Amino acid sequence: MGLGRLTGIYGALALVVQLVLIARLPWVEVRLGMDRLTAWHRWSGFWVLWLLIAHVVFITLGYARQDGSPLVSEIGTLVFDTEDVLIATLAMALLIAVGITSARLARRRMRYETWHVVHLLAYLAIVLGFLHQVTIGHDFVTTAVGRAYWWTLYGLALGAVALSRIGVPLLRNLRHQLRVEAVVRESADVVTIWIGGRDLHKLPARAGQFFLWRFATRWWEAHPYSLSAMPQGQHLRITVKALGDGSAWLQRIRPGTRVFAEGPYGAFTAERRTRRHVLLVAGGVGVTPIRALLEEFAQRRDDIVVIYRAREPVLAREMDAIARWCGARLHVVTGPADAQGMISALVRDVRRRDVYVCGPPGLTQAVRQTLDQLGVPESQCHFERFAFAA
């Protein structure tokens, strides 16, 4: 029984950590970056699942031993005859569903929209599990200090989520009144969407960051897209490739559509730079934050080299125009090339540069290994994942 209570307590604490990580608190997210927070969230999520499964197993075995009942009979008694254990069982089932769909193999086979909806069930599971704690949790039942501790802990964590994920975005959208102003086709499956609104110069967005975007005609879907141009105070711009049902639908969005944005998020900004010499590496649609960063670095007149690898290089003309204006060196690679050979041949002074990389996981990993082999210090390497995640 003691082991069951202990794993339950640690599982509950790990759930609170999960809430804080997904709250995306600005002062935390800007310093650590969304990639690191997402990795920690994923790692701690599986610990939550295993701790709570252990809690269920040990508690059930403990009660069965205490009552002298067969294990199957004890399970039925706990679930159907003990107050609020049924809702705790439902919470456990929801968390298992979230855990299974978060496994890499499952995520590769799921639409982003489906994964996102299933993932939201974790909030319901946390509330149901907490109700179970309130009713029969040892700390709640036996001590006022324990009750105050857990109410405060969960209250602060849920309050952080409500403020950062609901309150601030709601106030910002009421203030800025975002709408689609224009849609420009870049290729057969890529469009650039210009978004206007009020007082956009007061929106704390930087080149390299992204928002979670919702469009009024399909408000239930949230899509993470990076800004594809440096925010200038009049417009926000995203460039979207048709990779799934949601992004395919955005190819046909009409001007005037109301837009809701949550963010900005991401630490993939010029603030991470440690020196004036910069290398920007983009792959595929990962070019969007790289193009925005190029614009910001160009205004600073930094020493810039850009490598853009893609089969169909969208935004290449824009990047070429910016590069010509500021004297940057732009290399567009459309054929096969290994990362080490590409960087070694095109950027011989890479060790003295800050390197920003955004692209598919395969390219990002190859570039990371290459930079390590070439002796580029880790403090000069900045990455943004471009993968199936939220």
UniProtKB/TrEMBL annotation:
Membrane topology of this protein: Multi-pass membrane protein
PROSITE patterns cross-referenced by the UniProt entry: FAD_FR
Main localisation: membrane
Subcellular location: Membrane
InterPro entries, per database record: FAD-bd_FR_type, Fe3_Rdtase_TM_dom, FNR_nucleotide-bd, MRET, OxRdtase_FAD/NAD-bd, Riboflavin_synthase-like_b-brl
CC cofactor: FAD
Keywords carried by this UniProt record: 2Fe-2S, FAD, Flavoprotein, Iron, Iron-sulfur, Membrane, Metal-binding, Oxidoreductase, Transmembrane, Transmembrane helix
Stored Pfam families: Ferric_reduct, NAD_binding_1
Residue ranges of the TM segments: 6-25, 46-65, 85-105, 117-136, 148-168
Domain FAD-binding FR-type as annotated: residue spans: 173-271
UniProt key word Isomerase: no
Keyword Zinc: no
Top-level taxonomic group: Bacteria
Name of this protein: Ferredoxin reductase family protein
Species per Swiss-Prot/TrEMBL record: Amycolatopsis acididurans
